[in-house]
Design brief:
Protein name: Redoxin family protein
Organism: Gelidibacter pelagius
Distance between the termini: 93 Å
Keywords: Signal
Shape: elongated
Pfam families: Redoxin (PF08534)
InterPro entries: Redoxin, Thioredoxin-like_sf, Thioredoxin_domain
Radius of gyration: 29 Å
């Protein structure tokens, strides 16, 4: 009887403990915690964390509440880049090793080892295809052998993965396989046209993983060495057609990711094309007011847009003026600087800006320096160092926060305008600003 009581005492904890995700990190000194999240089509939910031990080891026990799906290990900040996905099928433990130099290796877990083995095999064959075309080979027999191997590899992994979660990814990744010899131009064309043909955008497993985002990014950004704006727009239109009328949530998420990439590489016209043609309507439909605001602010302040007007009350050449940005008619170009007298970068850069501006003809450029902090004694004192600038500060109440309308996230932020107040450049650094001003 006593043995039975002991068994019943430990039974609840035994039932709760299902499987685990464990592994090692290297180099050990670069890791502190492993955070586990369960991914879904709409985001990721925190599950648990484990402290990384002295030998780089960690272990996270999973209970029965954790269902099969895509999980994410976050190991650093920013979380968006310091993470990796794994498959948990609810039937096996996952054991892995992650190295900052060598990448991810699965020691245990048939699902993850199968997917990793598949991707490694396909990568090797893709290198052979690349070498074939790089050397401009016309050997049709060699061509057929390479693609025969590719087909056999794909078929073998599809068969081996039948009934597994990994099969979803293997089928979605199915490559284009020509039936007869194709030159590089024909092969590239057909590869582009079929790259997303086997992707089921409605599959929740794919929607929860990085696979979908990575493949879409490859389709948009990896299909041309010197992509034009028209090329990007065609690829985006094709992507939307592949996704279809349904799947509005994943469509919005993927388009937002591409929009962000276009902003990062400063292709404003394509970013605004995505917004105007698809993304803004999707955001409004989803009542995503924050995304609507971000898209609108970016468009209003893109290169080629007319700068947002605001009132100017300042002293110019010893005279008080009351006008607006659009009302200025003093130079062929204008430099709009958003700065703050408490910003160390601003206090370092503004003297250098002044030196550059002083070398230009007064009719070539006029500087409008907009203080972002509201009424401030330090600002009143600091502007005396720049008598040739037009100084503006938001002292009205309630404050308008013009810097927010311009999408200013840090100071100093620069906008170069033409005489009609159209934005012609948004330099990211002092060096870029100086180079642009010297070319005016």
């Amino acid at each position: 009887m006593r043995k039975l009581i002991i068994l019943l005492t430990f039974l609840p904890s035994f039932l709760m403990a299902q499987h685990s995700i464990e592994g090692t990190f290297s180099p050990v000194e670069d890791f502190t915690y492993a955070f586990l999240y369960k991914s879904s089509p709409t985001g990721a939910e925190y599950v648990d964390r484990a402290k990384v031990g002295e030998k780089g080891q960690f272990k996270i026990e999973l209970d029965t509440a954790e269902t099969a799906g895509i999980y994410k290990i976050v190991y650093g900040v920013p979380q968006e880049t310091n993470n990796f996905d794994l498959i948990y099928n609810g039937k096996e433990d996952v054991v892995l090793h992650f190295s900052l130099t060598e990448g991810l290796e699965f020691k245990e877990s048939n699902e993850n080892k199968l997917w990793a083995s598949y991707t490694n095999s396909i990568e090797m064959i893709n290198r052979a295809i690349s070498n074939f075309y790089t050397h401009k080979s016309g050997d049709e027999a060699a061509f057929k052998d390479i693609f025969k191997t590719l087909k056999e590899t794909q078929d073998a992994f599809e068969l081996a993965s039948k009934g597994t979660m990994a099969s979803v990814f293997i089928k979605a990744n199915k490559p284009y396989i020509p039936e007869t010899y194709e030159d590089i131009s024909t092969y590239s064309k057909n590869l582009k046209e079929t790259y997303l043909a086997n992707v089921d955008f409605g599959n929740p497993l794919l929607q929860s993983s990085e696979f979908l985002t990575d493949r879409v990014r490859a389709y948009i950004f990896g299909m041309s060495a010197d992509a034009t704006e028209d090329f990007y727009k065609r690829q985006i239109d094709n992507l939307v057609n592949y996704i279809g009328e349904d799947n509005s949530e994943i469509k919005m998420a993927l388009l937002q990711a591409i929009w962000s990439n276009m902003v990062q590489i400063e292709v404003d016209s394509v970013a605004n094309y995505i917004s105007d043609t698809y993304l803004l309507a999707l955001a409004k439909e989803a009542d995503n007011t924050m995304l609507v605001k971000v898209l609108t602010i970016f468009k209003n302040n893109s290169v080629g847009a007319t700068a947002i007007d605001f009132p100017i009350h300042s002293e110019v050449d010893g005279k008080n003026i009351a006008t607006t940005l659009h009302g200025l008619n003093m130079a062929d170009n204008y430099l709009l600087i958003f700065w703050n007298s408490g910003c160390s970068h601003c206090l370092e850069q503004l003297p250098e800006v002044r030196k550059t501006v002083d070398q230009l003809d007064a009719k070539t450029l006029k500087v409008i320096a907009y203080g972002t902090q509201g009424e401030d004694v330090a600002w009143d004192r600091e502007i005396l160092k720049y008598p040739n600038f037009i100084h503006v500060i938001d002292r009205a109440w309630p404050r308008r926060f013009v810097s927010g309308e311009y999408g200013v996230e840090s100071t100093p932020t620069y906008f170069i305008l033409d005489k009609n107040k159209k934005i012609i450049a948004k330099p990211d650094s002092l060096e870029e600003l100086q180079a642009l001003l010297n070319d005016l």
